Amino acid sequence: xxxxxxxxxxxxxxxxxxxxxxxxxxxxxxxxxxxxxxxxxxxxxxxxxxxxxxxxxxxxxxxxxxxxxxxxxxxxxxxxxxxxxxxxxxxxxxxxxxxxxxxxxxxxxxxxxxxxxxxxxxxxxxxxxxxxxxxxxxxxxxxxxxxxxxxxxxxxxxxxxxxxxxxxxxxxxxxxxxxxxxxxxxxxxxxxxxxxxxxxxxxxxxxxxxxxxxxxxxxxxxxxxxxxxxxxxxxxxxx
Length: 239
Ligand SMILES: Nc1ncnc2c1ncn2[C@@H]1O[C@H](COP(=O)(O)OP(=O)(O)OP(=O)(O)O)[C@@H](O)[C@H]1O
Ligand SMILES: [Mg+2]
Fold this sequence. Notes:
Number of strands: 10
Structural class: alpha/beta
Shape: globular
Bound molecules: adenosine-5'-triphosphate, magnesium ion
Strand order of the largest sheet: 6-7-8-3-9-10
Helix content: 25-40%
Radius of gyration: 18 Å
Distance between the termini: 34 Å
Number of helices: 10
C-alpha cells in the first residue's frame, strides 16, 4: 500500500536546484532504499520529505494529505522521524539525557514509560546509560540515534547513511536493526545507503538517483540484477 507519494518534485537549496521532476511512491511497512552516486541528491530527497529544503514545484503527500512545505515540526507530529547523516545526537549529553531530550513532544509520563521500552529494544544502551556519546563506539552511537527517533513512536523512519564510517561488521548489525524496525514493528523505512548491495538485499523497493533525477524505480531485486545500472552506479560487477 502506498503511504507517501512524491509527485513531480523540483527542490533544492535557495536557487540551487538539486532534484528534478522526482516522482515515486513509498510503500507502507516496506523498506525503500535510495541509492546513487555522491551528490546525486539522496540526502536532499529525505530532507525534502522532512520539510528542510526549498520546494519549487510538485508535491509530497502522506496518506493523501499534502505535507509539502509543512515545517519539520508539523511533519514529525504526523509520525515521520528523520535520522540525519551527522549531528543526530547531542554529544554533550548522556544517553539518558539524549533520550529525555528526544521525547520533547511527549508528556513527562510518556517519556518515563517510553525510555525502558527503547532500552529493551537496544540493550547495549543500558550499559552506557549514564555515559556521553564520545565514550561510545560508532555502532552504539547509531543505536542511540535510532532509539531517539523511536521515542516519538514514528510510523515512518528516514535514515541517511546510518552505517557511514562504521566497520563492515557493525554496519551489518545496524542494517539488521533497521530490518527489525520494518519486520517487528511495521515501520515504513526509507534508507539512503552507500553500501548499496547489502541494503538492496534487504530492501523491498529501490530508487536510483543520478544527477537529481530518477534513473530507476522498482523492486530492489531488479536493480541488483541489472547489469548496466549495477556496474555503472553501484559497483556491482557484471557477471
Ligand atoms: N545545505 C545545502 N546548501 C546548498 N547546497 C547543498 C546543501 N546540501 C547539499 N547541497 C548540494 O546539493 C547536491 C546534492 O547533495 P546531497 O547531499 O543531496 O547528495 P547525496 O546524494 O546525499 O550525496 P552523498 O552521497 O555525498 O551524501 C550537491 O551538489 C550538494 O553540494
Ligand atoms: Mg547524502
